[in-house]
Design brief:
166 residues, 4-stranded mixed beta sheet, alpha+beta, 6 strands, single chain
Amino acid sequence: MASNKIKNVKILERPAHLATSSASTDDVVKYIPEIISDGVILWTHVTSPFVDSNAYTNAIRAFREKSNSDGYDSLMSVTKIQKFLWDENGPINYDRQQEKWPRTQTLPMIYEVNSAIFLAPIEIYIQQQDRVGKKVIPFELSLSQAMDIDWEEDFKLAQELWQHDK
Protein backbone atom coordinates (compact mmCIF):
# COMPACT_ATOMS: atom_id res chain seq x y z
CA MET A 1 0.00 0.00 0.00
CA ALA A 2 1.49 3.32 -1.09
CA SER A 3 1.52 6.20 1.34
CA ASN A 4 0.71 9.74 0.27
CA LYS A 5 2.99 11.09 3.01
CA ILE A 6 6.31 12.35 1.74
CA LYS A 7 8.78 14.10 4.02
CA ASN A 8 8.13 17.88 4.00
CA VAL A 9 5.18 17.58 1.59
CA LYS A 10 1.63 18.17 2.69
CA ILE A 11 -1.10 17.46 0.16
CA LEU A 12 -4.17 19.65 0.46
CA GLU A 13 -7.19 19.17 -1.75
CA ARG A 14 -8.91 22.26 -3.08
CA PRO A 15 -12.32 23.14 -1.67
CA ALA A 16 -15.09 21.88 -3.94
CA HIS A 17 -15.94 25.33 -5.33
CA LEU A 18 -12.32 25.77 -6.49
CA ALA A 19 -12.06 22.29 -8.03
CA THR A 20 -14.55 22.71 -10.85
CA SER A 21 -13.81 23.31 -14.51
CA SER A 22 -15.42 26.73 -14.16
CA ALA A 23 -13.30 27.80 -11.17
CA SER A 24 -11.24 30.92 -11.81
CA THR A 25 -7.46 30.76 -11.42
CA ASP A 26 -7.71 34.20 -9.81
CA ASP A 27 -9.95 32.73 -7.09
CA VAL A 28 -7.46 29.91 -6.49
CA VAL A 29 -4.63 32.46 -6.23
CA LYS A 30 -6.65 34.42 -3.64
CA TYR A 31 -7.20 31.17 -1.68
CA ILE A 32 -3.48 30.35 -1.34
CA PRO A 33 -2.80 32.75 1.60
CA GLU A 34 -5.56 30.96 3.53
CA ILE A 35 -3.51 27.75 3.53
CA ILE A 36 0.09 29.02 3.31
CA SER A 37 1.40 31.76 5.55
CA ASP A 38 5.06 32.10 4.60
CA GLY A 39 7.75 30.97 2.18
CA VAL A 40 8.02 30.65 -1.58
CA ILE A 41 5.29 28.89 -3.55
CA LEU A 42 6.09 26.59 -6.46
CA TRP A 43 2.88 26.32 -8.47
CA THR A 44 2.65 23.65 -11.13
CA HIS A 45 -0.05 21.79 -13.00
CA VAL A 46 -0.72 18.11 -13.61
CA THR A 47 -1.47 19.17 -17.18
CA SER A 48 2.30 19.64 -17.70
CA PRO A 49 3.34 15.99 -17.49
CA PHE A 50 6.74 16.27 -19.15
CA VAL A 51 8.36 18.67 -16.70
CA ASP A 52 10.96 16.65 -14.83
CA SER A 53 12.83 17.08 -11.55
CA ASN A 54 15.79 18.68 -13.35
CA ALA A 55 13.55 21.45 -14.67
CA TYR A 56 12.16 22.13 -11.19
CA THR A 57 15.65 22.10 -9.67
CA ASN A 58 16.96 24.49 -12.33
CA ALA A 59 13.96 26.79 -11.93
CA ILE A 60 14.44 26.96 -8.18
CA ARG A 61 18.17 27.60 -8.65
CA ALA A 62 17.49 30.38 -11.19
CA PHE A 63 14.94 31.98 -8.88
CA ARG A 64 17.30 31.91 -5.90
CA GLU A 65 20.20 33.35 -7.89
CA LYS A 66 18.34 36.09 -9.74
CA SER A 67 16.00 37.15 -6.95
CA ASN A 68 18.97 37.72 -4.69
CA SER A 69 21.23 39.54 -7.14
CA ASP A 70 19.05 41.04 -9.88
CA GLY A 71 15.92 42.12 -8.03
CA TYR A 72 13.53 39.66 -9.68
CA ASP A 73 10.55 38.82 -7.51
CA SER A 74 9.13 35.76 -9.27
CA LEU A 75 9.67 33.18 -12.02
CA MET A 76 7.41 31.59 -14.59
CA SER A 77 8.15 28.98 -17.20
CA VAL A 78 7.85 30.04 -20.80
CA THR A 79 8.30 28.75 -24.32
CA LYS A 80 10.22 30.93 -26.75
CA ILE A 81 8.34 31.82 -29.92
CA GLN A 82 10.18 33.18 -32.94
CA LYS A 83 7.61 32.69 -35.66
CA PHE A 84 5.51 34.91 -37.89
CA LEU A 85 2.60 35.94 -35.69
CA TRP A 86 -0.48 37.58 -37.14
CA ASP A 87 -3.89 38.64 -35.95
CA GLU A 88 -6.87 39.76 -38.06
CA ASN A 89 -5.04 43.04 -38.80
CA GLY A 90 -1.79 41.48 -40.03
CA PRO A 91 1.62 40.82 -38.49
CA ILE A 92 2.09 41.61 -34.81
CA ASN A 93 5.79 40.91 -34.33
CA TYR A 94 7.39 42.41 -37.43
CA ASP A 95 6.90 45.26 -39.89
CA ARG A 96 6.16 44.25 -43.50
CA GLN A 97 7.05 47.79 -44.61
CA GLN A 98 10.64 47.15 -43.51
CA GLU A 99 10.90 43.57 -44.72
CA LYS A 100 8.06 41.37 -45.91
CA TRP A 101 9.58 38.08 -44.72
CA PRO A 102 12.54 38.55 -42.36
CA ARG A 103 14.57 35.55 -41.30
CA THR A 104 12.75 33.73 -38.51
CA GLN A 105 15.89 33.89 -36.36
CA THR A 106 15.84 37.71 -36.47
CA LEU A 107 12.23 38.06 -35.34
CA PRO A 108 11.87 39.44 -31.83
CA MET A 109 11.75 36.81 -29.13
CA ILE A 110 8.29 36.49 -27.63
CA TYR A 111 7.45 34.21 -24.74
CA GLU A 112 4.37 32.08 -24.35
CA VAL A 113 3.47 31.37 -20.74
CA ASN A 114 3.27 27.58 -20.69
CA SER A 115 1.92 27.33 -17.11
CA ALA A 116 4.32 24.56 -16.08
CA ILE A 117 6.14 26.43 -13.27
CA PHE A 118 5.43 29.56 -11.25
CA LEU A 119 7.66 30.54 -8.31
CA ALA A 120 6.89 33.47 -6.03
CA PRO A 121 6.95 34.35 -2.35
CA ILE A 122 3.64 34.30 -0.51
CA GLU A 123 3.82 38.11 -0.20
CA ILE A 124 3.05 38.40 -3.93
CA TYR A 125 -0.06 36.26 -3.49
CA ILE A 126 -1.15 38.46 -0.58
CA GLN A 127 -0.21 41.92 -1.86
CA GLN A 128 -0.76 41.53 -5.60
CA GLN A 129 -3.23 38.65 -5.63
CA ASP A 130 -1.14 37.02 -8.33
CA ARG A 131 1.28 34.14 -8.78
CA VAL A 132 3.88 36.41 -10.42
CA GLY A 133 5.20 39.76 -9.33
CA LYS A 134 6.35 42.86 -11.17
CA LYS A 135 9.80 41.65 -12.26
CA VAL A 136 9.44 38.10 -13.57
CA ILE A 137 12.23 35.72 -14.59
CA PRO A 138 11.22 34.03 -17.85
CA PHE A 139 12.39 30.43 -17.38
CA GLU A 140 12.53 28.75 -20.76
CA LEU A 141 11.47 25.13 -21.18
CA SER A 142 11.87 22.97 -24.27
CA LEU A 143 8.79 22.46 -26.42
CA SER A 144 8.33 18.89 -25.23
CA GLN A 145 8.70 19.80 -21.55
CA ALA A 146 6.37 22.76 -21.93
CA MET A 147 3.48 20.79 -23.35
CA ASP A 148 0.29 21.87 -21.58
CA ILE A 149 -2.69 19.57 -21.92
CA ASP A 150 -5.76 21.76 -22.32
CA TRP A 151 -7.68 20.00 -25.07
CA GLU A 152 -8.40 16.41 -26.08
CA GLU A 153 -6.03 16.77 -29.04
CA ASP A 154 -3.24 17.79 -26.61
CA PHE A 155 -3.95 14.67 -24.56
CA LYS A 156 -3.73 12.42 -27.62
CA LEU A 157 -0.44 14.03 -28.64
CA ALA A 158 0.91 13.60 -25.09
CA GLN A 159 -0.03 9.91 -25.21
CA GLU A 160 1.88 9.55 -28.48
CA LEU A 161 4.95 11.30 -27.05
CA TRP A 162 4.79 9.17 -23.90
CA GLN A 163 4.60 5.95 -25.93
CA HIS A 164 7.44 7.10 -28.18
CA ASP A 165 9.73 7.87 -25.25
CA LYS A 166 9.18 4.47 -23.56
